[in-house]
Amino acid sequence: MVPKIxxxxxxxxxxxxxxxxxxxxxxxxxxxxxxxxxPYGYALWENVQQALDQRFKAxxxxxxxxxxxxxxSFMKKEAEHVEGFSPELAVVTHGGGKRLxxxxxxxxxxxxxxxxxxxxxIQSYRDLPLLINQWCNVVRxxxxxxxxxxxxxxxxxxxxxxxxxAEEAMAETYRMxxxxxxxxxxEAAIPVIPGRKSExxxxxxxxxxxxxEAMMGNKWALQAGxxxxxxxxxxxxxxxxxxxxxxxxxxxxxxSWGVSTRMIGAIVMVHGxxxxxxxxxxxxxxxxxxxxxxxxxxxxxxxxxxxEGIMSELGQDLRCHLDDRPEVSPGFKFNDWEMxxxxxxxxxxxxxxxxxxxVLVRRDLPRxxxxxxxxxDTLLPEVRNLLDAIQSSLYxxxxxxxxxxxxxxxxxxxxxxxxxxxxxxxxxxxxxxxEATIKEETKATIRCIPLQQDGKPGPCxxxxxxxxxxxxxxxxx
Length: 477
What we know:
Layout: H1 12-22, E1 26-28, E2 35-37, H2 39-58, E3 62-63, E4 69-71, H3 72-75, H4 79-85, E5 90-95, E6 98-106, H5 111-121, E7 130-139, E8 153-163, H6 166-186, E9 193-196, E10 208-215, E11 221-231, H7 233-237, E12 241-243, E13 249-251, E14 253-260, H8 262-271, E15 288-292, H9 297-314, E16 320-322, H10 330-339, E17 344-348, H11 350-355, E18 357-362, E19 371-375, H12 379-404, E20 406-407, H13 412-419, E21 423-428, H14 432-442, E22 445-450, E23 458-459, E24 466-467, E25 469-474
Parallel strand pairs: 3-7, 15-16, 15-17, 20-21
Antiparallel strand pairs: 1-2, 4-6, 5-6, 7-8, 8-14, 9-10, 9-22, 10-11, 11-14, 12-13, 17-18, 18-19, 21-25, 22-25, 23-24
């Protein structure tokens, strides 16, 4: 039997874990808090990697790799940075059977080790901008873990850049934030809100932090990507100076930015339903599954002759899979591939062969509304059109869901009610006290201050003082 999925309306957390395991995205590792990413989940991550990597390289960034181990002294060079990460650090004190002269930090992020190298590589304005990205793993000793969303070890990309001016670095910060927005919306079919983080929520060591925030299926928020303006904090800590065009010695201006395997969790929670996964076609490991149907050897031969032609035609530029397992029924296969979120299923039986058509079943629509037929002569263009329609449909559904569950409270009482039902877009005066009060009393945090503002002042939702920006308040993963 296809593994049973707990309905999200019954237990959302259990629903999520059921899907991740039943669809074979990941499994719990023997080490507490860690996960094993299974082939299907890793194929999804590879598609995420490819889509982002193309965008990075198109904007001039180059991939590199830096060590997993970081000298403890490096972490201590930037005070705010080490304070922010200290509770999550994994420290190596012994190696080769001996105590190390200096403890090594297992990489939680790479600002320090990368900047130690930048200090060697950057001498002149001619060396700038320096645009580096790396794909790697990081370790953060999390107390509460959940597959993909928060694990002790996870995979990510982290970009690190150095520039000759603050203006150039800020432009890079915004550019990478927009690349993440573009990827989330056009590849993952996830509508996101780009915005600035509050002081309490920003990255340790950054001057300003920006993020894309998305609404999950339980109406909580998830930070899906971040882009940080680091100013000259790390440049001064690691003495990264360059000779300017004016022949003056100056510190570089820097950024860092990243997206992790948390994006897989976002895809699950934004699009999944009672039956399991629903994957956007542009990222799905399998875009089309072909299920032949027969009752005897004669029908099998008849159907498979046509199926071979379909696989040959579609497989040229689509990720296709043929499910011809004889030991399970067609009904099992239908449920299995629905649970795994394959965007489009093609069914072909003897009667379909006689009629020279195939049955197409979309994963994005409810059952009884998701079937159509297509002539075998025009199958490829029909499949392409349907995949585009599914990609668009998933985004539209997610956007509608977010809009229906985003509220604009004017009073504190309305805010309390709003964050229990979804996102609250409300005026905030910028006070840390107001932010802390809301967090303590509602468990909602400021997810971001959206970049798009109407420019009109209004009363702070907490203290009623004049405010000039609205913020997104929500509970979050």
